[in-house]
Amino acid sequence: MKDLIDIRELSTSEINQLIEVAKEIIDNPLDFAERCKHKKLATLFYEPSTRTRLSFEAAMYDLGGQVIGFSEAGSSSAAKGESVADTAKTVECFADIIAMRHPKEGAPLVASQAVNIPVINAGDGGHHHPTQTLTDLLTIAREKGRLDNLTIGCCGDLKFGRTVHSLIAAMSRYANLKFVLISPDELRVPEHVRTEILEKDKIPYEEVHSLEEAIPKLDILYMTRVQKERFFNEADYIRLKDSYILSPEKLRQAKDDLSIMHPLPRVNEISTAIDSDPRAAYFRQVKNGKFIRMALILKLLEV
Ligand code: CP
Question: Based on the number of CB atoms within 10 Å of its own CB, is 252 exposed (0-12), middle (13-18) or buried (19 or more)?
Fold first, then answer.
């Protein structure tokens, strides 16, 4: 495997192996501190990011490597009209591996086809965000001690939320899962996710409107932001943006060992009063993102 563009390119055993390597890194970080000495990661971010870009950069530094790149298209020659393929070919002259975020779906795939070094998709439009999914899987594995026998609630914008689609695709490999999909009608999980993953793999799921009614049965609650940048119509965004706000009152009916996850950034869908609740896993999830990206860089560089 040269690149990671879509989480479905990874077999279940490859995912499990990445999770095990990430756990080894967590337990013995110094063992990995020089594994990528003299290697360079290029972070090519054409779209804003805090966690993904910085966790990739921290991951490479913690492996002893170096980082080059740009954090907005306007500071690269993309602003002069350079193609993604030409940018990738240029970066290949300087770096050993690329992590790319781009608003256009398919851009990291185009880059991967233009170069011989590995390209990691760090998010392409509403399409894929495989390293977020790996982060989510490591978080579930660490929080719950398992990836099977779970009832997972996904709440909020399930239509445009690429992380939810990829999470469902990745989790569908594990046994005895149930999904509770909590959204307004306008932001339901797309039909292709329901028919081509959930129904095809015979994974039980229900679609509901009420977070309060769903919450008592959940082992994991995966909250999502209503994404302003994916809406064509501002009036629709304003009408739907506050559909689900997780508050301490709503959590009263939840299990004591619920794990609350969120890919972040949040706007207001999780009250900050919940941040100190031990069930709030979303900042631990951020930290896991660095460790799983370290494991992925090692795999793709065959270190
Ligand atoms: N979860 C995530 O992709 O966050 P950023 O947009 O900050 O990278």
Answer: exposed
